Amino acid sequence: MRNCPRAMREASLALGASQWQTIYKVVIPFSISGITSGVVLGIGRAIGETMAVLMVTGNAAVIPTTILEPLRTIPATIAAELGEAPAGGPHYQALFLLGVVLFFITLIINFSVEYISSKGVKRSK
Questions:
Q1: What's the CA gap between 80 and 75, in Å, rounded?
Q2: Less Cβ crowding at N or C end of the chain, within 10 Å?
Q3: Which of 97, 109, 108, 123 is CA-nearest to residue 30?
Q4: 5: left (phi over 0), alpha (psi -120 to 50) or beta
Q5: Spatial contact of 102 and 73, defined as CB atoms under 8 Å apart
Q6: CA dist list (Å): 117 to 3, 29, 123
Q7: How far is residue 116's CA from residue 55's CA, in Å, rounded to a whole number?
Q8: Residue 110 has pLDDT above 90, yes or no
Q9: What's the confidence (pLDDT) of residue 102?
Q10: For 68-102, how does the pLDDT look when each residue is reduced to its tens digit (9 = 90+)?
């Protein structure tokens, strides 16, 4: 939000807008791509903290039936089971397939962040 040019803020204030109107109509629209990128990357980092997630979620390898039951995320499953899976076996291959799925989820999230960021840059020029 600090990257918003000072000239844009001053122009808005010079036209008679209040400080809150300037923030709402000028600063936030100019900064929306950075705000969105920060939120998405923060969520991605929170999900990616594998071992913390593994301990917090209860390490339960069962499919939950309600949102209150413990569960296991994809990174936690890979971290917990890869050491015990025999190399080349079906369990090992399934864990690597989970890694590929996780890679594509991350790729989609990153592409969406880039799309939103580039959309904000075009609009501000």
A1: 9
A2: C
A3: 123
A4: beta
A5: no
A6: 14, 12, 10
A7: 33
A8: no
A9: 87
A10: 877 777 887 888 888 888 888 999 999 999 989 98
d(CA 71, CA 65): 10
Nearest CA among 82, 74, 120 for reference residue 101: 74
pLDDT at 121: 60
pLDDT given for residue 94 in this prediction: 93
Taking the CA atoms of residue 50, residue 51, residue 55 and residue 61 in that order, the dihedral angle to the nearest 10 degrees is 60
Single-letter amino acid, residue 27: V
Decide if 31 contacts 3 (C-beta within 8 A).
yes
Q: Are 76 and 53 in contact (CB under 8 A)?
A: yes
Alpha carbon 106 to its chain's center: 8
Q: pLDDT (tens digit, 9 = 90+) per residue, 38-53? A: 888 887 776 667 667 6
Looking at residue 56, its amino acid is V
Q: Measure the CA–CA gap between 76 and 49, rounded to whole angstroms.
A: 9
101's torsion region: left (phi>0), alpha (psi -120 to 50) or beta? alpha
